[in-house]
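Inverse folding, one chain.
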């Protein structure tokens, strides 16, 4: 199904009828929004179609002058057929293949485009290179967002001096966020649950940091999605402390979550979507990292605020520093996040609240 906030634009410029293939996840979609914002700012006459996941669409659905085609991967072959039907009459100047997963690569075959831009050889996997006829320029040690910007470079979109995100939310959700902010006063957000349990910090340590923030006269709220892991993680924190002012786990839409994050003084989170949503709206983020390199996947504007033990974990496991390993290699283990101390996070909290 196609959802559109797109008004037909007449363009006689070559290369400005663009299809973007980026289905998931929330954090990566936030990175992609920055690239889309750049295209819209520099090429206001561009026709942009974005093939996107069902959940992720809820975050970006109000971006103007972008047509969205929802691809629900849970539908399997039926999703590919729907995509083919939706775009059967379309011929794009360029397809930006911004997802290397084989599922996305195979689905992209039904999209007709003169130029099919994929990742460079070093960032290409799962046979990604077979489905592209042009590749972005190689870049060493690039953040995921910068890697996405390489697609705009490949199109010839003029660069911008700063990264920006244009991701509107409804007036109703904006007012809801303002009301909650007024009720809470100064507050910090803990978004404790990543997509996998091993990437989560310990609940009792979140609780100790929450108590420290409360002693500073700030409220602390929990946020999270509707998943079982989100709920169990929040419940575990609540068992260890009484200072949580509100628990919004599974109680907000994505746009309401954006509103809560926008008005927060601080966000603490592991490698999860709300961390990227928060940096997108200008709220300081303390990211907690052990398995992945925050220089690659951390909140883009808050890399310096990360509490990371990735460097020591990867050196212990591989016998080499991360600089000598393939970019993006992950550390493995179910207990790595335990290496992040309460004191290191509190130190970051104190510095951010003082500044």
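Residues assigned per position:
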């Amino acid at each position: 199904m196609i959802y559109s906030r797109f008004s037909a634009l007449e363009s006689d410029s070559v290369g400005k009828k663009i299809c973007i293939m980026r289905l998931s996840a929330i954090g990566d979609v936030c990175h992609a929004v920055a690239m889309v914002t750049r295209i819209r700012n520099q090429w206001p006459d561009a026709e942009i179609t974005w093939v996107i996941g069902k959940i992720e669409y809820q975050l970006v659905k109000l971006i103007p002058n972008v047509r969205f085609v929802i691809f629900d991967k849970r539908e399997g072959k039926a999703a590919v057929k729907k995509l083919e039907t939706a775009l059967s009459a379309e011929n794009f100047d360029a397809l930006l293949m911004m997802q290397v997963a084989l599922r996305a690569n195979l689905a992209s075959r039904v999209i007709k485009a003169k130029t099919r831009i994929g990742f460079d050889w070093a960032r290409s996997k799962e046979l990604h290179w077979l489905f592209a006829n042009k590749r972005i320029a190689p870049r060493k040690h690039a953040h995921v967002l910068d890697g996405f910007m390489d697609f705009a470079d490949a199109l010839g979109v003029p660069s911008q001096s700063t990264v920006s995100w244009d991701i509107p939310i409804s007036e109703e959700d904006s007012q809801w966020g303002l009301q909650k902010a007024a009720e809470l006063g100064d507050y910090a957000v803990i978004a404790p649950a990543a997509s996998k349990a091993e990437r989560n910090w310990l609940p009792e340590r979140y609780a100790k940091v929450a108590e420290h923030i409360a002693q500073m006269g700030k409220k602390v709220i929990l946020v999270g999605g509707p998943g079982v892991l989100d709920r169990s993680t929040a419940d575990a924190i609540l068992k260890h402390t009484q200072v949580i002012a509100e628990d919004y786990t599974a109680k907000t839409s994505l746009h309401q979550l954006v509103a809560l994050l926008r008005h927060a003084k601080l966000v603490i989170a592991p490698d999860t979507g709300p961390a990227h949503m928060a940096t997108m709206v200008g709220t300081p983020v303390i990211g907690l990292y052990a398995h992945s390199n925050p220089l690659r996947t951390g909140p883009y504007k808050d890399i310096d605020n990360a509490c990371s033990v990735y460097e020591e974990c990867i050196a212990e496991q591989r016998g080499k520093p991360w600089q000598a390993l393939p970019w993006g290699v992950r550390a493995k283990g179910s207990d790595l996040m335990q290496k992040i101390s309460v004191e290191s996070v509190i130190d970051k909290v104190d510095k951010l609240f003082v500044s």
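Residues 2-155 form a domain with the Rossmann fold fold (CATH 3.40.50.2000). Residues 26-42 form the longest helix (17 residues).
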